[in-house]
Amino acid sequence: MNTKNKFLFFMLVAVMLTIQAAPAPVQVSAAQQGPSLRGYTVETISAEFRRLDHFVTFKGEYQVLDVAGARSAGIADVIITLAQDVVEYQNRMREVVKAQDVKDVEELDIPLTEYPLLAEFDAILQDYKPSGQVEPLAPDTHPCGTYSHPVPNYTPPRPYIGWYTNAHNTLVSWGFHQTAGYACGQDPFVPCELDYTRGRGYSGPYGYCSSPRFRDQGSRNAGNHDIWIQYGEPNPEIFSYSWPYWDWGWYVQWWHDTY
Amino acid sequence: MPRIVGKIVLLIGLLATVGVAGWAFSHALFDFTQKGAGVGLGRVFFFFLYLPTALCVLIGGVLLAFRDRVTENGVVKTGALVVSLLLLLVAAGFTMENVMNNIRYYGGEGALGVLIQNLFFDLPLLLLSGLLFYLSRLGRAK
Question: Using a CB-CB distance cutoff of 8 angstroms, which residues of chain B are in contact with residue A254?
Answer without folding.
Answer: 38
